[in-house]
Specification:
By secondary structure, this protein is mainly alpha-helical. It folds into two domains: 16-60, Arc Repressor Mutant, subunit A (Orthogonal Bundle); 65-206, Tetracycline Repressor, domain 2 (Orthogonal Bundle). The chain contains nine helices and no strands. Helix 4 (64-91) runs parallel beside helix 7 (132-153), helix 5 (97-113) packs parallel to helix 8 (163-184) and helix 5 crosses helix 9. It is elongated, with a radius of gyration of 21 Å.
């Protein structure tokens, strides 16, 4: 499937009024994607929904693709913020190893529960945009670096494991389960139970299992 073209925003808003205009445009884009889908989203529809002229929209966003790219960057940055907060709490000694894992997973599951319809559209369409994978990597790369850095500080709690492999495995697993749990089976899975099961998965993968007890005496 050919990539859809993508363009960066033409300019960044600096004044409060311009920032409000851009925010209104992005919220209008999100509303249309959420309620009507990708095909119904275009610059004219967004401008009308946002209450701005098409000329004002084009000052900042030259195309539909640049609007969606900006939304995807905003959405991904929230996920990075969640991870940074969890790592910060752990680094400050506020949370134990197990608490840090549960805190992060709970935050990621909750993040995916916010606006799942928009999340679905972004996850389906952004990889098709020209440069869309680069947009995702700009957030996923520092996120993975944070996880690896935290794992490095926690080596005494871990079984012998290659940290690069562990980082890739854990980040991918948490993201995939959080994503699919909300989009594919949101009404069937208890969110808190999912947090606990995913935490057990991560903790079991990372930690040395307890040694087996003494063999039982045959009766």
């Amino acid at each position: 499937m050919p990539s859809i073209r993508s363009e960066s925003p033409r300019k960044k808003p600096t004044q409060a009024r311009a920032q409000h205009t851009v925010e209104s445009i992005l919220r209008a884009t999100a509303h249309i994607l959420r309620t009507a889908g990708w095909d119904a989203c275009n610059t004219n529809a967004v401008a009308k929904r946002a209450g701005v002229s098409i000329g004002s929209l084009y000052q900042y966003f030259p195309s539909k693709e640049s609007l969606v790219t900006a939304l995807a960057e905003e959405h991904a940055a929230r996920g990075l913020g969640v991870l940074m907060e969890a790592v910060s709490a752990a680094s400050g000694g506020k949370l134990s190893f197990e608490q840090t894992v549960r805190h992060y997973i709970r935050a990621m599951v909750a993040l995916h529960a916010v606006d799942p319809k928009l999340h679905r559209v972004l996850m389906e369409q952004v990889p098709r945009l020209k440069g869309g994978l680069d947009v995702m990597r700009r957030v996923s790369t520092p996120a993975a670096a944070l996880v690896r850095s935290w794992l490095e500080t926690q080596r005494k709690h871990l079984r012998a494991v290659d940290l690069d492999v562990a980082t890739f495995t854990l980040v991918t697993a948490v993201e995939a389960v959080s994503h699919l749990q909300m989009l594919e089976r949101p009404a069937k899975l208890d969110q808190e139970l999912m947090v606990e099961e995913l935490s057990q998965l991560v903790l079991g993968y990372l930690k040395i299992p307890p040694p087996p007890g003494p063999p039982g005496r045959a009766s």
